[in-house]
Amino acid sequence: MKFKTLGKPEKPVAVLIHAMFFSEEMFDSICQTLQYSHYIVLPTLDAHVLNENSTFLSVQDEAKKIADYLLKNDIQHIDILLGTSLGGIIAFELFNFQKISVSHIFLDGTPFMRFSDFRIKLMATGFKWIAHKSAKSPSRKNLLDKLYPTHAAEMKKICGGMSDESINNLAFACYTYELPEKIDLKEQQDLTFLYGTKERARICISTVEKYANCNLIIKDGYNHCEFLAKEPQAYVRMLLNDF
């Protein structure tokens, strides 16, 4: 895992956690604006750092490493905590870490669901197929080009260098994490779920709707993490609670 920071340390802290097969670069478009109001901490998860021989083990392991980095750098409070897709699961785990407080939590396209063991194996097989194809023929178009045309080239490099162990663990992490029956929020604290109507993770909308103390934003016509990619300025306004 590696960390990048932007902005001035005296500003309120924003922690942005990327999706699977991405890196912290997926947030470049919003960091251009957000760095003027916040000190941004950008982790790149294990197995996602190019030329680093690391293995993704679990959501809990990643959240602990982020928390350890923050505490080591005397950061005990996060103003904005954003996690996209898999990053949202890790963000939720970090939100529950008692030594660090969080004001505003945003979970974008996060798959809070539990698949059967057989289905998880199928998903892992699909992920490994994409990774192996990307490593063998990075210039040849595959599913990543269709789903994420802006970031496909980088994503191929990232997943192409991953071990099968990391990909198996990533599949498990994505499709076994379930939300608790109740989400406790303190005063001056809020949590926002965000889903597009065209993404597969939209099936989680019925699950998160039951949390009356949380916000839910549904972006009609948007695919997975597409709001972030297509409307960075509007996305920043959302993060600043102007939605």
Question: Could you name the key traits of this structure?
Answer:
Rossmann fold; alpha/beta; globular; 10 helices; seven-stranded mixed beta sheet
Largest sheet: 7 strands, mixed
What portion of residues belong to β-strands?
A: 15-25%
CATH topology: Rossmann fold
Estimate the helix proportion, in percent.
Answer: 25-40%
What does this structure look like?
It is built from 10 helices and 7 strands. The chain is of the alpha/beta class and 243 residues long. It has a single domain, classed as Alpha/Beta hydrolase fold, catalytic domain (Rossmann fold), CATH 3.40.50.1820. Strands 1-3-2-4-5-6-7 form a 7-stranded mixed sheet. Helix 4 crosses helix 6 (152-160). The longest helix is centred in the middle third of the chain and has 20 residues, at 117-136. The radius of gyration is 17 Å and the shape is globular. It starts with a strand and ends with a helix. The mean pLDDT is 94. It comes from Liquorilactobacillus uvarum DSM 19971. This is AB hydrolase-1 domain-containing protein.
